[in-house]
Amino acid sequence: MPQVTATERPAPPLAGPVRATGAPVDLMLLAVAVTGVSFSAPLIASMAAPALAIAFWRNAMAVGVLAPTVLLRRGLRAEIRGMSRRTLTLCVASGALLAVHFGLWLPSLKLTSVASATALGTTTPVWTLLLLRLRGHRAAPLVWAGAALAMAGVIVLTGVDLTLSPEALLGDALALGGGIAAAGYVLLGAEVRRTVSTTSYTLWCYGVCAAALLATCLVSGTDLGAGYTAETWLKLAALTVAAQLLGHTLFNRVVHGLGATVTSTAILLEAPGAALIAAIWLGQTPPPGVYVGLAVILGGLVLVVLGGRRRNTTPSPPIA
Fold first, then answer.
1. Alpha-helical segments (H) within 165-229
2. Where would you find the membrane-spanning parts of this chain (predicted)?
3. Which of 99, 207, 224, 292 lies 20 to 30 angstroms, CA to CA, from 153?
């Protein structure tokens, strides 16, 4: 993968146009990324480990894989040394928001169903749209219609879970908060990736995220490994490979070639993919109303993406 240093060209305005010029290899990588992140929620829900510890280990293990790559490649080392103070600040802020995302979304999987948590976590494009509007970006009417439809789906979904238990409703709230935090992560990451390679950006971002989550675990007294079974460690390794390295990292890789619209649309497949895997593997079969809410949310997000395509203002969201 060619490396791009921060000095080769000035950074364009935040969340500006991105054209899709991807090659077939990008499409294959995109398919791998969607498959990888679809296993994220079911794997987490099946683990006998605290949610915050899972969040820490998936990022720490990813850093352990990426760090040797950077150390062994002179171009990457030079790129990191040459990062401007502004770029480093954006990387740190992006990693901190990713930690908030994980810190909210992962615990939600222990409280509500995989289908509900994943659907609410993928509302990120709606919150990204609102943040862009606050920055002065105008969106097409179709985008706003999609946002309204997606929020209607959120209301349907949370209404169904309210009838199940207050615990499920709390899980919905955490998942929704995770989606909101991810919107900030998206915007900052999109800005950094204009001038910085995938490897350098993800190393910084995952490193900051892991450090923030480690501090949170130590302060809260979260068990980081004592008594973990071999099965738990194996699932943590699988989660790191599938969701972090083949999910987050590949999405950050292909968005530069495929463009935000194609990537965003593909990311929406995580929700039905995770729900299907959870139904088959974990036996989680939510009430029919959950699937109605899921369908409405996905329909709204598709409208957001299609409307954003007309003005090229919708960046792609990250995946849990």
1. 166-192, 198-220
2. 27-49, 55-76, 88-106, 112-132, 139-157, 169-189, 201-221, 233-251, 258-282, 288-306
3. 99
Q: Which of 185, 205, 192 is nearest to 128 (CA)?
A: 185
Average pLDDT of the chain to the nearest whole number: 82
Contact between residue 317 and residue 124 where contact means Cβ atoms under 8 Å apart:
yes
Structure token digits, residue 66: 């990426």
| Rounded Cα–Cα distance for residues 139 and 147 (Å) | 11
Which pLDDT band, with edges at 50, 70 and 90, does 143 fall under? confident
| Pairwise CA distance, residues 229 & 104, whole Å | 25
204 contact partners, CB below 8 Å, separation of at least 6: 80, 88, 91, 92, 95
Q: Smallest Cα–Cα separation from 131: which of 194, 178, 187?
A: 187
C-beta atoms surrounding 144 within 10 Å: 16
Q: Are 139 and 132 in contact (CB under 8 A)?
A: yes
pLDDT, one tens digit per residue, over 152-163 is 887 887 777 676
pLDDT tens profile 206-253: 999 999 999 999 999 999 998 899 999 999 999 999 999 998 888 878
CA atoms of 272 and 291, how far apart (whole Å): 9
Please give the structure tokens belonging to residue 130. Answer: 């609102």
**How far apart, in whole angstroms, are the C-alpha atoms of residue 48 and residue 51?**
9
Overall size of the chain counted in residues: 320
- Asked if 74 and 284 count as a contact pair (C-beta separation under 8 A), the reply is no
Q: Contact, 18 vs 242, CB < 8 A?
A: no
What Rg do the C-alpha atoms of the chain give, in angstroms?
A: 19
DSSP letter for 47, please.
-
319: DSSP letter: -
Four-residue CA torsion sign, 167, 170, 174, 175: positive
Q: How far apart are CA 294 and CA 300, in angstroms?
A: 10
- pLDDT tens track for 15-40: 443 344 456 888 889 889 989 998 99
Alpha carbons 320 and 318: distance in angstroms, whole number: 7
